[in-house]
Task: inverse folding
């Protein structure tokens, strides 16, 4: 179980990106965080695996205080938290398979992995993950040769080889077209259903959130303004979250 | 129309600027000794034209020459008898002098007959008992005849004996062949290109790791709690203090040697020197450490006390077996060098031998360093867990005070003794204990104020130190570095390699680190998030992104180094500059012209090639 306690992040320039955010995520839940750009979604996700150090508050995961873990322990925590990014964050000049194998780095010996040596099991695992997201035939291409949707699938494969218990997903589809968006979201849903991986995913679009989320948390200016099942978000709630002038857009 | 006051103010400002400009250039004119009269001096112009004529007429090819010689005799001063001239033989050239006697500095007429037509010749005068002087040069006409009334009798040539006048006409025969200057130039040019290659390679080997330390985006996130940083540092400082005190107190060398484990290293080196047996021992060591570290003591991947102990043991074992392995390997390398001494003219042998010697020379120092770091890691882990358990800021501040005072005192003590001994070797040191105490107090105050748990921006500190050193190094010209290295390793290309390598480290370090700073940060984030260590993150997130620009900059640097190595010889750094300077000093401008031409061709060719290659990569 993941628990956020009074999480606050103030950046060096004084921006208060998160303000006293607390909630719990039970194991196996598909949680979607919605909110406008700049509402603190990305900061929240990055505070969970401490890519960004929270200013105040704690992140407790499986009973361990993540925010207090020393660097060495952080390594063991992070490798069970997969992460998927808005701009995919692949190394574009590297091969697809190398990008996926990078997900195993937390498990490999630091010295040996510097020579680009991975065990046979790791290589096979990487191949299987690529097959799962349907791009096994692209394994030896450069990442830059793939389309956006394919690149995001490489990102999912990279997170999968980490054997994660939790996946932090940061706006996975905002760089993709609607059709591809659904295909990516379905892969995430499958990971959630079959592998019982808890998913914390930030999204722009409410319609996508409604389609995939078990539960929605909404952020506005760094504060939590909604926490509940998707169907509870009606017209009034929607305007609270997105502002008076907003109109809901359907993604098909 | 009236002008606004603003425009008046601007006009005054403009005039002031012009006046300041004129003053600056007037001073510059004076300071740089610009002297148009000197430039117009006829003698100087004649000299520069002669030098240019040589430089622009490089002696690339030579031909063999044949010559005809004829003699005539002259008397200074005149006596009653005329000097007897050689017989004129039909078909042979001869010389006539009118008159055939005279005073020193007289002008006499010389006429030559029967030489090879249209050929160059010269007239040499040998006063009795003196050295030969070349007086005139001439060219024969279509009949092989030449006449001049401008042959001057040498001064101070009075004698009873005959003055010998020799006329020689020369002409080239046979096919042209490369001149001596050309072959020397080609040899030296090859040396120059390789000098640049070695300097670039040495430079890049050091510059690559340094460039990561000088990259802001990689270094900024590195922070370490003050307490554990000091705990890492303390064993290193204590070790240095121990060695320094022992040496200062005149302790037997054996003791100091044992502290850096030198006898053990030598023993391992001797094992390696047993040839095949040494190689066998090396293999057994490698296999043994592999089995122990990876099979018997696998990383438990957790943060329990046992997990931490196992990881620490693995680190210590890995470090020891690597160091032992290096010592044995250099022994094996030494044997290998002897075995392959016949191959490739000994080049391979000398390379292997040099590397082995270098490793075995560095090992005692490296061993001490490594063990201090391993010990420091243990201590810093202990301090970190202690800080975690300490309740309240008072206890943390107290720990900070203790560690800070110890580290500050040791640092100033060691730094002061090192600097003092550098400038005044052997003198007694004043104020040593006062300075040490001051360091302790300062460090203590720092530790007290910050507390042992204060997160120190260690990465940024290293970043600024490395940047400052690189900037300092880069501002010293390689020619000046060359002068120092010539003192150290003597005149020759090695000094040039070291000078250019040092400068390349600074220049490449900066260029490389700027590339690291401009990479896409996304992969860094992604790979850090997988639980990779910092080194793994650099290997998989940074390195793939910087390979093309690194290659491009390395080629560019090689290009610059070739340019610089052509002049590093001026200070004794080997390469073509060395012979070029000699030729210029000996006024052999045609030979110097060959070198200048070669430099121009090679630099232009490399410039073009490296530009093309860089275009392809990026």
Result:
């Amino acid at each position: 179980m993941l628990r956020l306690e009074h999480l606050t992040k103030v950046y060096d320039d004084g921006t208060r990106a998160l303000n006293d955010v607390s909630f719990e995520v039970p194991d196996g839940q598909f949680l979607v965080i919605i909110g406008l750009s700049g509402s603190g979604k990305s900061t929240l996700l990055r505070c969970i695996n401490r890519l960004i150090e929270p200013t105040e508050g704690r992140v407790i995961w499986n009973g361990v205080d993540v925010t207090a873990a020393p660097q060495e322990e952080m390594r063991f925590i992070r490798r069970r938290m997969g992460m998927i990014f808005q701009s995919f964050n692949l190394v574009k000049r590297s091969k697809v398979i190398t990008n996926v194998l990078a997900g195993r780095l937390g498990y490999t010996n630091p010295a040996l992995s510097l020579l680009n040596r991975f065990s046979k099991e790791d290589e096979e695992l990487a191949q299987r993950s690529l097959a799962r997201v349907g791009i096994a035939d692209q394994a030896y291409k450069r990442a830059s040769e793939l389309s956006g949707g394919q690149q995001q699938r490489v990102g999912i494969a990279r997170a999968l080889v980490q054997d994660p218990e939790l996946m932090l997903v940061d706006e996975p589809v905002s760089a993709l077209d609607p059709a591809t968006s659904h295909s990516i979201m379905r892969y995430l849903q499958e990971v959630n259903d079959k592998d019982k991986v808890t998913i914390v995913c930030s999204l722009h679009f409410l319609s996508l959130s409604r389609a995939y989320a078990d539960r929605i948390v909404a952020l506005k200016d760094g504060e939590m303004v909604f926490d509940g099942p998707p169907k509870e978000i009606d017209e009034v709630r929607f305007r609270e979250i997105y502002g008076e002038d907003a109109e809901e857009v359907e993604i098909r | 129309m009236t002008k606004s006051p603003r425009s008046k103010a601007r006009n005054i400002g403009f005039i002031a600027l012009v006046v300041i400009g004129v003053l600056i250039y007037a001073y510059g004119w004076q300071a740089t000794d610009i002297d148009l009269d000197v430039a117009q001096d006829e003698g100087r112009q004649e000299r520069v034209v002669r030098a240019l004529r040589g430089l622009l007429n490089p002696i690339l090819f030579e031909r063999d020459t044949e010559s005809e010689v004829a003699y005539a005799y002259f008397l200074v001063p005149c006596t009653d008898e005329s000097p007897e001239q050689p017989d004129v033989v039909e078909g042979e050239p001869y010389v006539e002098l009118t008159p055939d006697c005279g005073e020193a500095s007289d002008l006499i007429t010389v006429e030559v007959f029967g030489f090879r037509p249209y050929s160059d010749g010269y007239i040499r005068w040998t006063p009795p008992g003196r050295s030969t002087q070349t007086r005139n040069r001439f060219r024969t006409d279509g009949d092989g005849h030449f006449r001049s009334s401008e042959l001057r009798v040498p001064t101070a040539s009075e004698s009873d004996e005959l003055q010998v006048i020799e006329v020689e006409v020369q002409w080239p025969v046979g096919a042209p062949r490369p001149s001596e200057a050309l072959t020397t130039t080609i040899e030296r040019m090859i040396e120059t290109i390789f000098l640049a290659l070695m300097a670039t390679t040495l430079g890049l080997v050091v510059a690559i790791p340094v460039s990561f330390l000088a990259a802001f985006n990689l270094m900024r996130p590195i922070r370490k709690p003050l307490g554990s940083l000091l705990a890492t540092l303390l064993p290193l400082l204590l070790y240095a203090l121990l060695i320094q005190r022992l040496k200062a107190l005149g302790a037997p060398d054996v003791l100091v040697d044992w502290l850096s484990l030198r006898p053990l290293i030598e023993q391992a080196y001797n094992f390696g020197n047993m040839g095949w047996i040494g190689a066998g021992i090396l293999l057994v060591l490698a296999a043994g450490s592999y089995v122990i570290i990876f099979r018997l003591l696998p990383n438990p991947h957790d943060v329990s006390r046992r997990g931490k102990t196992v990881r620490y043991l693995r680190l210590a074992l890995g470090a020891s077996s690597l160091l032992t392995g290096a010592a044995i390997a250099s022994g094996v390398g030494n044997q290998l060098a002897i075995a392959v001494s016949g191959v490739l003219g000994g080049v391979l042998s000398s390379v292997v031998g040099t590397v082995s010697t270098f490793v075995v020379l560095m090992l005692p120092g490296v061993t001490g360093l490594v063990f201090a770091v391993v010990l420091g890691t243990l201590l810093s882990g202990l301090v970190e867990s202690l800080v975690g358990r300490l309740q309240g800021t008072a206890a943390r501040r107290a720990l900070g005070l203790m560690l800070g005072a110890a580290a500050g005192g040791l640092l100033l003590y060691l730094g002061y003794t090192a600097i003092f001994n550098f400038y005044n070797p052997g003198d007694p040191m004043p104020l040593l204990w006062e300075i040490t105490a001051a360091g302790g107090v300062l460090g203590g105050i720092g530790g007290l104020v910050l507390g042992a748990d204060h997160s120190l921006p260690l990465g940024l500190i290293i970043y600024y130190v490395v940047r400052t050193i690189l900037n300092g190094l880069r501002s010293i010209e390689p020619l000046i570095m060359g002068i120092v290295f010539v003192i150290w390793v003597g005149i020759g290309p090695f000094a040039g390699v070291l000078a250019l390598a040092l400068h390349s480290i600074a220049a490449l370090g900066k260029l490389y680190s700027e590339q690291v700073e401009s990479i896409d940060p996304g992969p860094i984030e992604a790979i850090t998030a997988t639980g990779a260590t910092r080194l793994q993150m650099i290997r998989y997130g940074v390195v793939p992104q910087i390979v093309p620009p690194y290659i491009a900059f390395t080629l560019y640097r090689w290009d610059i180094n070739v340019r610089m190595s052509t002049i590093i010889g001026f200070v004794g750094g080997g390469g073509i500059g060395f012979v070029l300077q000699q030729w210029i000093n000996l006024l052999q401008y045609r030979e110097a012209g060959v070198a200048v031409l070669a430099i121009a061709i090679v630099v232009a060719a490399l410039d073009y090639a490296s530009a093309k290659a860089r275009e392809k990569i990026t």
In short: The two ends of chain A are 33 Å apart (CA to CA). The CA atoms of residues 101 and 123 of chain A lie 7 Å apart. Chain A touches chain B through 43 residues (CB under 8 Å). Chain A is about 35% helix and 25% strand.
